[in-house]
What we know:
Elements: H1 3-13, E1 19-21, E2 29-31, H2 39-56
Helix pairs in contact: 1-2
Amino acid sequence: MSREEILELADAVAPYEGIVSGIGTTAYGAQIVIEAATSDDALERAQEVFEAAAAQAGLPAWPVVWAMPISEDNDFEDIP
């Protein structure tokens, strides 16, 4: 992924306090903040937001291979 492509993705996820990765790799990713009543709701909404952001950035529509909901109550040290 080029720097420009990843910067476009960063702009697309910025409204969701997003951070992105992927410059110089063959993949891209993002961490975004979604407020939802349940983890399942958060994952569903996050996937929609991520797919729309990738499309907005002109990135390939690859499948999401890893998603993990966390909450303010989680112990963040357990996150890989």
